[in-house]
Design goal:
single chain, alpha+beta, GTP Cyclohydrolase I, Chain A, domain 1, GTP Cyclohydrolase I, domain 2, 2 domains, five-stranded mixed β-sheet, two-stranded antiparallel sheet, 7 helices, 38% helix, 21% strand, binds zinc ion
């Protein structure tokens, strides 16, 4: 009777808490199973609705209450269609490139891109700003596509370091250049609303490629976003 499921693996529990609170990520690619998209979205919404309802019931909430009864469905739709829609490659923004007609060969910076993501360790929000820059290799991209690429990778369970790298890698790929910079500054609600409960700190990550590894180019970018 001592080995109840909750205290069978105390070591494992400690490790689970530590990985979450230390926010240790394990891979550049989002860890997805091979069969991740075998189920269609409608089926996923239905299944999540059922499971989320169970979670609420386990917590003792009365699902016959008018305010609560639609919550499982709302959460399920929000997960699949909104805040985790970036898991599905089908939702990846299509990017059209344009010729760099003005021969603008300086750095292009788009700063303060609104960023909403969710921490993969706690499933609570990460809220921040992304600043991106590139130097054209002959083609340019519509400005709003920069926002969409940030949004797409944000709409996954994330760790900030991985999110930063995924955005930078995608920009390098679509723009066909290594000359890309991405800086993210964000507040993690798992740090402010629980755990250490620090509301004053934020996390800054960065990724620089190509010419941005050069001290002066990087500083020019940092000056623009300061
Ligand atoms: Zn977290």
């Amino acid at each position: 009777m001592l080995n109840t499921p909750l205290n069978t693996y105390p070591q494992e529990d400690i490790l689970i808490d530590a990985i979450g609170d230390d926010h240790v990520g394990t891979a550049y690619d989002t860890p997805l199973r091979e069969d991740a998209f075998k189920l269609d979205d409608a089926t996923k919404v239905e299944m999540i609705e059922k499971h989320f309802k169970s979670i609420m019931e386990i917590m003792g909430l009365d699902l016959t209450d008018d305010s609560l009864k639609g919550t499982p469905k709302r959460v399920a739709k929000m997960y699949i269609k909104e805040i985790f829609s970036g898991l599905n490659p089908a939702n990846k923004p299509e990017v059209k490139l344009f010729d760099n007609k003005y021969q603008y060969n300086q750095m292009l910076v788009e700063k303060n891109i609104t960023l909403f993501s969710n921490c993969e360790h706690h499933f609570v929000p990460i809220i921040g700003k992304a600043h991106v820059a590139y130097i054209s290799s002959g083609k340019v991209i519509g400005l709003s596509k920069l926002n969409r690429i940030v949004q797409y990778y944000s709409q996954r369970p994330q760790v900030q370091e991985r999110l930063n790298i995924q955005i930078a890698n995608e920009l390098k790929k679509v723009l066909n250049t290594e000359d890309v910079a991405v800086v993210i500054e964000a507040d993690h609600l798992c740090v402010s609303s629980r755990g250490i409960r620090d509301t004053g700190s934020s996390t800054v990550t960065s990724e620089y490629g190509g010419k941005f590894l050069d001290y002066e180019t990087r500083n020019e970018f940092l000056k623009y976003i300061a």
